[in-house]
Amino acid sequence: MSELTTEKSSPPVPAEGTPDAPWHRLDRRMLLIRPVLDGVKSLPLLIGALLLGHGNYWQWIGLAVTAVTVLAGISHCLTSRYRVTATQVEWHTGLLLRKQRSVPRDRIRTVDVMSEPKHRLFSLSAVRIGTGRHSHGKGPGKDELVLDAVSGAEAQRLRTLLLHRKTITTNTAAGTETSAEDSVETGPQERLVAAVDKRWLRYAPFTLSGIAVVGAIVGTLYHFVHELHLDPLRYGPLRELAQQYTAAPTWLVVLPTAVGLLVLVAALSVGGYVLSFWNFRLTREDGGTLHIRRGLVTTRSVSIEEERLRGVEVKEPLPLRMVGGAKCVAVAAGLREGKGADKGGGLLLPPAPIGRVHEVVADVLGEDIAAVPLVRHPRRALTRRLTRAVTGVLLFAAALFLLAWIDFLPAWPWQAALVLLPFAVLVGWDRYRTLGHALAGAYLVTRSGSLDRTTEVVRRDGLTGIVVLRSLFQRRAGLITVVAPIAAGKGHYHVVDVDETVGLALADHTVPGLLSPFLVAESGI
After folding, report:
1. What pLDDT digit, counting tens, does each position of 333-342 carry?
2. How far, in Å, CA of 493 to CA of 331, rounded?
């Protein structure tokens, strides 16, 4: 008589993206980095307590604060855990003070993967999950989730799982055999849109990004010298150099100094370009996602869902425009806005030839914006720009004249300010020449600016309304400003100083039917 034996099978492991998804912890290799970093941050306090404490209780306070800081970092690494369920991403951390945060998956707009040198030392990455509600400040926003120590493979898995959920759902609905886990492991297929070219380094000096570095160095040195009450001219080499410059003619001092400063700024700008944009690649993935990778020392990887993309901005600062260059930034929810947009991960193309920028814009938006002629604004807008430019210089010269009249300044500053009048007229004329707008398919296009010319392209179906502004001076000139508010980028984009009739027609065509009742009522009156 045979015996019937049964074996008790183990329960199945919950899959990712299900209500009972498993919990994951941060990579333990971060424990080798976090205490050192926290200790370095506490060094000023610790050194001050040891040097100024003189054996009293302040030394113990400094040591205690340093120890608490290091232990808090260790506790964060040991207690942090996260998981991805079917509806949200959950994160728990803390030992004595517990913190919990959850982000709905349907609100996730971007997944930013960054690897700083401290991460790359152990092949780790930091994953920043954006929901579209943070755009100001340096730290993580209220609805932003940051996993600051995961492996490179885990970062790629999270990015694919969170941004390609629709592709996985579509495959399941079509009856294919590919599971969600298999789709995450294999990753999406990519198509290259743009990659950095080494020849683009010639545009780096014209970005003038090195000016900020030079300013920071000068400011730090000045603060250091001022706090220590040092006089650099008291030391031999500097004193001799100052005496030589004082004895030399003015032009012989100013010219070499200006040339040396320009060379330094250019060198720093090229170095910054290499560090920031080396290995830059923009790809389009299956499922409608743009993927941006860049960086030499600190690598960064940003993914943007195309359905959340609301447009682009083509930026042409004057020095870059003079050599035929420009850069392109995405207008999308969840990305930093304004001047820090490229640092916030929305850079679609670094400084490059303007023709290449237009090609990338056409590929990303599916609309050849460069081929669309812009509507010129009336010459009354030229009068406003010339008036503003000239008035600003005259007011500045008048203020310097008053200071000279009361013997606070010599007479030459206000006279030198008047030399700026021709340049002000040129800037005013260029600002007018830049003005333009158009409707290109599903997009509203507007261009303005001279020293920092910007062409802004935003989706009309993404606008939250339309605003028509008219100041007292615009009313006298028969001009208006049309504002297109949108929940992305800067939040609003302006078509400035357009003819009243043309502007109202533009507003009505941009969001059809929104202004029609008001226009009909006004014509009836």
Report:
1. 766 554 444 4
2. 11
